[in-house]
Amino acid sequence: MPGDGGQETRHPVVSREEWLAARTALLAKEKEFTRQRDALSHERRALPWVGQKRKHRLGQGGDPGLKLDDVVARVAGHAPAMSPPCVRAPGERIRSRPRP
């Protein structure tokens, strides 16, 4: 197997009953892990948000007065100044084209 240093992994061969007991024990651990992960995710989503005192403007690489709404509109293709989106066939490489 790749990444195992050339050594073959040997698993013990057991009866179906022994396998079922081991699988049931592992399943209990997996369920507990899932509960803990879900609880942690819930705590993360419940964190408070930081309020914004001003409207953010984007100033890197473009118009210093550009608002986030303008950027989203341009990326989504809704701004009239934007060229049509690049259309390609599956498997075709995207070729960069000059900006207007």
Name the features.
100 residues, 2 helices, two-stranded antiparallel ribbon, mainly alpha, 39% helix
Task: Give structural notes.
This protein is mainly alpha-helical and 100 residues long. It has a domain at 14-43. The chain has helices at 16-45, 68-76; strands at residues 57-58, 66-67. The protein has a two-stranded antiparallel ribbon with strand order 1-2. A hairpin with a 7-residue loop joins strand 1 and strand 2. The longest helix has 30 residues, at 16-45. The chain is flat, with a radius of gyration of 27 Å. The relative contact order is 0.05. The model has no long low-confidence stretch (mean pLDDT 76).
Give the overall shape, derived from the CA principal axes. flat
Counted beta strands:
2
Q: From N to C, what is the helix and strand string?
A: HEEH
Radius of gyration: 27 Å
Fraction in helix: 25-40%
Mean pLDDT over all positions: 76
Q: Please give the largest β-sheet.
A: 2 strands, antiparallel
Lateral arrangement of strands in the main beta sheet: 1-2
